[in-house]
Design goal:
This protein is an alpha/beta fold and about 375 residues long. Among the domains are: about 150 residues, N-utilizing Substance Protein B Homolog, Chain A (Orthogonal Bundle), CATH 1.10.940; about 90 residues, Rossmann fold (3-Layer(aba) Sandwich), CATH 3.40.50. Helix content is about 50%, strand content about 10%. Helix 1 crosses helix 5 and helix 6 crosses helix 7.
Length: about 375
């Protein structure tokens, strides 16, 4: 299937089905963009995507969702009436074309032609003319259209109005800096497994594989890659030599100051990044990983297996102590409590679409 069509399918699932982009990207691509009409794919073998195609799809999805509210405003000006639910697949292709024209180095004519060509998979002949017309009109009037959209803060800052208001109230002097920073693409940071090798040794291995990186100045296990890559390209990733993890998240395990043979509780453990890092801190640790989501707990298990580490996995709500606690004290407890996740929008831009004001109220109860 055309990578552009796959990207449109992914965006559709986030915007119109409320799915997490992380979850969408983890799933196979043999499903249609629009389940109401199933126009895209019959049951047939799928051609394996190249590393470059997979990276392109991910980049397009993240970028289109990062600038979702800006693209929304443009669509309101470019399309005279809202598209029907069964035609939102066409709209998602247009979103990709607009994103490419505004934010990528793709030549304008290529962005238009390739988006039009991708519409063939939708089995909607009329869509070719609409996509071509919308994108070409944007090219003709780009400056004026963007100026018109950017008179409204939701478009200018690509943020939902309710969240902008909360940031403005909480940080009246700095909210613009926060918003601008969160709209920038996050660097790829990895955590070196210091049980296997030193950080400098792994940095050398990256350089030998033409993967430039730099030492993080504040976190002893962190390296920052010059450019994001597929984990398949990271030396010995699948046998636990490193993990992809933000530098700030890596600080948690270091702050626990784990010593050999300690008993550790990682409450709210999924997806297991911090659990794995704790296991790397000292020998013979007795770790309990607790989470109330069975599906996400599977990811903890997968992460630990890749690292060659073990933990006791318990599906339970940390609040319901009688359901899981055996009465024995822990030497250390890490609680990464459920939160709004608005602090990691730079890395997960779909949060801007998925989070609602009511979510915040429910979290603080």
């Amino acid at each position: 299937m055309n990578p552009r069509t796959i990207a449109a399918k992914n965006i559709y699932q986030v915007i119109y089905q409320g799915k997490s982009l992380t979850d969408v990207l983890r799933k196979p691509t043999n499903q249609s963009i629009n389940p109401l009409i199933d126009p895209l794919i019959k049951k047939r073998p799928i051609k394996e995507l190249s590393v470059q195609e997979t990276a392109w799809i991910k980049n397009i999805c993240f970028g289109s969702l990062r600038w979702h509210y800006q693209i929304n405003a443009l669509l309101d000006l470019l399309i005279s009436k809202p598209m029907k639910k069964k035609d939102k697949d066409v709209e998602c292709l247009i979103r990709i074309g607009l994103y490419q024209i505004m934010y990528q180095d793709t030549p304008d004519h290529a962005a238009v032609n390739e988006t039009v060509a991708a519409s063939q998979a939708l089995k909607k002949k009329w869509a070719r003319g609409l996509i071509n017309g919308v994108l070409r009109r944007f090219l003709r009037d780009q400056e004026g259209l963007q100026q018109q959209c950017n008179r409204v803060d939701t478009s200018l800052y690509a943020y939902p109005q309710w969240l902008l208001h909360k940031l403005q109230h909480a940080w009246p002097e700095n909210w613009q800096d926060i918003v601008i920073a969160s709209n920038q693409r996050a660097p790829m940071t990895i955590r070196v497994n210091l049980q296997q090798q030193t950080r400098n040794a792994y940095l050398t291995r990256l350089q030998e594989n033409q993967l430039p990186a730099a030492i993080h100045p504040h976190v002893e296990s962190a390296l920052v890659l010059d450019s994001p890559v597929n984990v398949n390209q990271l030396p010995d990733f699948f046998i636990g030599a490193c993990s992809v993890q933000d530098a700030s998240a890596q600080l948690a395990a270091h702050l626990l100051d784990c010593q050999p043979e300690m008993t550790i509780l990682d409450a709210c453990a999924a997806p297991g990044g911090k659990t794995g890092h704790i296991a790397e801190q000292a020998s013979a640790l007795k770790i309990t990983a607790l989470d109330n989501d069975a599906v996400r707990l599977v990811r903890v298990k997968e992460n630990l297996e890749r690292l060659g580490q073990q933990a006791i996995l318990i599906e339970a709500d940390a609040n319901q102590i009688a359901d899981w606690y055996n009465g024995r004290p822990y030497d250390r407890i890490l609680l990464d409590a459920p939160c709004s996740a608005t602090g990691v929008i730079r890395r997960h831009p779909d949060i801007k679409l998925l989070r609602k004001p009511s979510d915040i109220k429910n979290l603080v109860k």
